[in-house]
Specification:
single chain; about 200 residues; alpha+beta; seven-stranded mixed sheet; 8 helices; globular
């Protein structure tokens, strides 16, 4: 990792959540999964996408897994072992926000989440990368790799694996360069775009 990139990467604080939610919403605006969950034309679509990252980002922050880089123009939402799924208390606290986000699409959200949970339950303890993204205009400058490496270094030190589900074909090469390999298949609901589960053993 270049020294300049390394210096831009840090753990996020509560003051970073709003900016990171906007950064990740911009990065995932045309993502196939988000286009399935909240198609173009859905009322207040851009704001609802942003709220997805605000909710998940706040929970990641609470567990020490939210990272920022490039002054908030890149971010990663990680969950440490044992926290990839919210507790009953967390789920209850987040429910009103998810109902506002999902609206009439709530059933679609639930189907996708259930499919991911079903696969996830079979995995050993690991760090989970839920989202990583860079604001358009700053992509291709290495911030994604720097954000990955920050947590993967910890995984290696603690001898823990890492896991993610790739929603974008062009990101597979980035993940492979950092030691991730394809890991089984996901049985997604009808109409949902394919996702690639990827696993990385510690080095």
């Amino acid at each position: 990792m270049g020294e300049h990139l390394q210096q831009t990467v840090r753990r996020a604080t509560s003051g970073d959540v709003e900016r990171l939610s906007r950064t990740l919403a911009a990065a995932f605006a045309d993502d196939l999964l988000f286009s399935h969950l909240l198609p173009r034309g859905v009322r207040a679509r851009d704001e609802r996408v942003r709220r997805v990252f605000a909710v998940d980002g706040a929970r990641s922050l609470a567990h020490g897994g939210l990272w920022t880089a490039a002054g908030g123009d890149a971010g990663a939402v990680w969950f440490p072992p044992g926290h990839w799924r919210g507790t009953s208390r967390e789920d209850l606290g987040e429910l009103p926000a998810w109902l506002r986000i999902g609206g009439r699409r709530m059933r679609v959200f639930q189907q996708v989440r259930s499919a991911l949970f079903a696969h996830h339950r079979e995995l050993p303890s690991h760090w989970y990368l839920l989202y990583i993204g860079t604001r358009p205009g700053r992509q291709g400058q290495g911030f994604g790799g720097a954000l990955l490496q920050a947590v993967l270094d910890r995984c290696d030190t603690e001898r823990l694996p890492a896991y993610l589900e790739a929603t974008c074909e062009r990101n597979l090469s980035l993940y492979r360069r950092h030691g991730f390999v394809e890991h089984g298949t996901l049985d997604m609901p009808p109409g949902c775009p394919p996702m690639t589960p990827m696993w990385r053993d510690p080095r």
